[in-house]
Amino acid sequence: YEGLRPGAPLVLSLLHTDLHGHGPSTRPAPREQMILLRDDPPLATQMWVLAPQLWEALLTQYGFRVEAIDLLHHPDENVPVIQQLIHARRLARRPARISSRPRTTEPPTPHAAVGVGTIILGEQGLLLGRHRRGTLELPGGTVEAGESFEATAVRELAEETGLIAELGDVQLLGTLVDHVEGVPRITVGAIVHAWRGEPATQPDESVGDWAWHPLDRLPNGLFVCSAQILTAWRPDLPIDHTPAHFTPFTPASPHQQRRTVLREREHGPNS
Description:
By secondary structure, this protein is an alpha+beta fold. Helix content is 17%, strand content 35%. The chain is built from four helices and 16 strands. The strands form five sheets. A five-stranded mixed β-sheet has the order 11-7-13-12-16, sandwiched between helices. The longest helix has 14 residues, at 254-267.
């Protein structure tokens, strides 16, 4: 940190999974690794082999903003070695507030303008996953044709994290409306109050590395839609993001909630 100018990039290439298939540690402690040399016997050394979210936490703690973390697999698919490539940037000073990153300016496809983001708050904190572009975000995704917002929250939660929830456990917060390049973007915030299972990276999903984050130590680099949902839910959270118009939903009566859940159980979410 002291050797870089404010705003200067820092790029790190780090071991993630070794020749024996041993993955990264979830605590900051060095471990013994064998380095293969071309002409000499393997060399034993102490090496830091840490999970991506731990590297991000440490870099953030020491005044860097992590912009992307990529996992690079060996070109030979039979070799289990995986490297981490971390792109970070030295901040002028540790920010007093949590930053958020803008969305892409590319126009959405017609079905992608409405999405649901889901708040999962457990004993260890808020559940966030890392998108392959590097942003951290809530579980959620695009509403499918004819699908209720509650059904979207349940489906996306299962597809992205493996967690199972029931429609009756979903509470809708309201809609957030903003725009990018003149295209309206509508995001529905939701809270899931009960679920089964443990979050895990799912195959072929663009968001993974799910981890719990205490509300008083949220990371930088939140996806702007997730940031907007979180401040609509808890306006006291110190998260910076572009503004959006929030319209809270009026809570449905218990009879209306039960009728909706029963209808979707009988006919599916598209009824």
